[in-house]
C-alpha cells in the first residue's frame, strides 16, 4: 500500500465515522445506555474479526497481544468518555472537543518516537481545530461536566492513534485490530455489568448497533490499522478529524439539520488544512521548468 492509497483509505474511515456519529445518536435516542452500545458494537466486531481472520487470530503472540490490549484500552477510554459526555453536553461541543486530539497527537508521538512534527503538520492541526470550531460550535463555549468528559475522550483517541502508529510498524495490523476489539469488548462488558443500566433493544437500536459494529468499528478500524502502517500519526489524526465534516453532512441528509454559512466555512478550512499537510505547499514552492 502506497502513502496516497493509505491516505485515501483513512479518508474513507473518516466518512464511515462521520455517519457513525449519527448512528450513535440514534442508538442513544433508542434509550440504549452508553456502555450497552459499546458492548454490542465491540462484541459484533470481535466475532467478525475472529471469524474472518481465524488464521491470523491463531498466530497472535504475546508481544502482539500486549500491544493490541493496550490499544484496546485507549479505544475503550475514548469511546466511553465520548458517549457518556454526549449525554451531558451538546453534539457540537462533543464533536469539537473530540477533534482536539489532532493537536495532541503530534506531541504524544514526539514523546514516544522522538520524531518532531514538521511545521506543516502543526499549521494543519491548528487550522483543523479552527475549521471544526466553525463547523460545530454554537453559542458560547463554556466548560461543563460533559465537556470535561469529552476532553478525556480526545486524549484517549490521541493515545489510540499514536499507539497504533507506533505498534503498527512492529506487529501485524490485522492481529492488532483483533486484539483491540476483544479488549474493548471485555472492558465495555465489565463496565456495563457494574453500571447495570441496560434497556431493551428495539429495531431502531438493532440497526444502529449493527452499523456501528460492522461498518463503523470492524471495517473502519481494520482499514485504519492497515493504512497507518504507511503514513504518519499526525497526518492520520488530521485526515480522521474530517469525520466532523462528514458527520455534519450525514446529519443534514439523515437528520434534516440545516447547513449554515458558518458550517460551510468550517468545511473549507478543514480541507485547506489537509491540503497543507498533504502537499506541504510544494505546488507553490515548485520552480517553473525552463526549456
TrEMBL record:
Residue ranges crossing the lipid bilayer per the database entry: 37-55, 67-89, 95-113, 120-137, 149-167, 174-194, 206-224, 236-255, 261-277
Primary residence: membrane
Location of this chain's protein in the cell: Cell membrane
Membrane topology (UniProt): Multi-pass membrane protein
EamA domain boundaries: 6-136, 145-277
Keyword Transmembrane: yes
Keywords: Cell membrane, Membrane, Transmembrane, Transmembrane helix
Recorded family membership: Belongs to the EamA transporter family.
Protein's UniProt name: DMT family transporter
Lineage: Bacteria, Bacillati, Bacillota, Clostridia, Eubacteriales
Amino acid at each position: 500500500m502506497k502513502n496516497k492509497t493509505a491516505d485515501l483509505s483513512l479518508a474513507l474511515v473518516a466518512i464511515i465515522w462521520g455517519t457513525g456519529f449519527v448512528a450513535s445518536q440514534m442508538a442513544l435516542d433508542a434509550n440504549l445506555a452508553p456502555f450497552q452500545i459499546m458492548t454490542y458494537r465491540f462484541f459484533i466486531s470481535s466475532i467478525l474479526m475472529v471469524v474472518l481472520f481465524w488464521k491470523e487470530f491463531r498466530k497472535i503472540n504475546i508481544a502482539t497481544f500486549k500491544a493490541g490490549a493496550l490499544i484496546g484500552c485507549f479505544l475503550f477510554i475514548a469511546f466511553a468518555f465520548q458517549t457518556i459526555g454526549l449525554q451531558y453536553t451538546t453534539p457540537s461541543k462533543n464533536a469539537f472537543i473530540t477533534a482536539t486530539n489532532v493537536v495532541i497527537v503530534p506531541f504524544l508521538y514526539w514523546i514516544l518516537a522522538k520524531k518532531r512534527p514538521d511545521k506543516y503538520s502543526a499549521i494543519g492541526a491548528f487550522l483543523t481545530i479552527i475549521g471544526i470550531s466553525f463547523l460545530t460550535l454554537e453559542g458560547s463555549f463554556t466548560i461543563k461536566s460533559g465537556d470535561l468528559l469529552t476532553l478525556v475522550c480526545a486524549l484517549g483517541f490521541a493515545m489510540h492513534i499514536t499507539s497504533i502508529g507506533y505498534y503498527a510498524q512492529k506487529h501485524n495490523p490485522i492481529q492488532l485490530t483483533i486484539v483491540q476489539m476483544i479488549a474493548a469488548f471485555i472492558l465495555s462488558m465489565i463496565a456495563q455489568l457494574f453500571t447495570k443500566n441496560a434497556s431493551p433493544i428495539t429495531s431502531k437500536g438493532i440497526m444502529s448497533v449493527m452499523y456501528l459494529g460492522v461498518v463503523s468499528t470492524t471495517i473502519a478500524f481494520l482499514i485504519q490499522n492497515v493504512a497507518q502502517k504507511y503514513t504518519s500519526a499526525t497526518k492520520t489524526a488530521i485526515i480522521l478529524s474530517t469525520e466532523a465534516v462528514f458527520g455534519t453532512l450525514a446529519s443534514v441528509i439523515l437528520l434534516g439539520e440545516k447547513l449554515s454559512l458558518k458550517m460551510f466555512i468550517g468545511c473549507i478550512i478543514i480541507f485547506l488544512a489537509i491540503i497543507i499537510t498533504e502537499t506541504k505547499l510544494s505546488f507553490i514552492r515548485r520552480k517553473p521548468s525552463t526549456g
